[in-house]
Amino acid sequence: MRSLLHFTTVLFLLTCSVAYAADDDGKLHIICFGAHPDDCELQASGVGAMWAAQGHHVKFVSVTNGDIGHWREAGGPLAQRRKSEVEKAAKVLGTNVEVLDNHDGELMPTLENRRTLIRLIREWKADLVLSPRPNDYHPDHRNTGLLVADAAYMVTVPFICPDTPPLKKNPVFMYYEDRFKKPYPFHPDIVIGIDSVMEKKLDALFPDMRIFATHWFSGDEKSKKSQRLAHGYQFPEDVHWQAADHRLVAAANTNEVWKI
Question: Is 42 in a helix, a strand, or coil?
């Protein structure tokens, strides 16, 4: 089964390469969008590391600066800390990263933000674009998906953002995996095993446990344990409850899954 999935993935990438490759080096340009610093790293750092090792051009974009994504600190210092964390992760993965200066929790699908994403996709000469689906518990996740969807066709239209040359061909757009059932559940079209780069992904996400450490929990052991049990997950005690449970599950998954 894994061999079949691997073959399908290789065939998919070869098709993209022949049809869309933007540079004379024949390498793909992949751009991944997430709402917050660490979203792309969770969803796509395995394949990002694999592609980067093959010479493809990979960029992660956080559409907000993550400045309220912590229970204890916020504002400029947190935004700077999270930006620093994903920049360190990019060095481990061999990828590029950019963090946009929009406030966490306040992202809106405005024309200005759509134009920003159109320019980013064009400037990267993207062959493949990854993003969350536009249905999610978090408004920033929903609106990131909506912004990418609204930019998808417009990247080829010459007279919007005329300061940035339009793409001659539309990229392939795909969604990250999620667990949401409404309006319809996620069904994967492509599954990529990332066993070979799992250690690199974990090194990028957990270099000193700062990228997740204490991000969500209030600090007391009772609260941490109750939140853990509410999620229904079991983890080794040596995790020390330093990471949000659903994020650890995503990081420990040895497949990365997408939908067209």
Answer: helix
Give the β-pairing of 29-34 and 128-131.
parallel
Q: Which CATH class is domain 2-219+254-259?
A: alpha beta
Q: Tell me the average pLDDT across 91-118.
A: 97
Contact in structure between 45 and 37 (CB atoms under 8 Å): no
Tokens (6 digits) for 165: 């040359």
pTM for this structure? 0.79
For 129, the enclosing helix (H) or strand (E) is strand 128-131
Least confident piece of the model among 56-60, 72-76, 188-192, 253-257? 253-257
Both structure tokens of 83: 């930006």
CA-nearest of 256, 137, 117 to 197 is 256
Q: What is the pLDDT of residues 128-158, one digit of tens each?
A: 999 999 988 899 999 999 999 999 999 999 9
Q: Are 178 and 133 in contact (CB under 8 A)?
A: yes
Q: 3-state DSSP call for residue 142? A: helix
Instruction: Spell out the domain ranges in the chain.
Output: 2-219+254-259
How many angstroms separate the Cα of 129 from the Cα of each of 33, 148, 150, 161?
A: 8, 9, 13, 19
Nearest CA to 131 out of 66, 60, 67 is that of 60
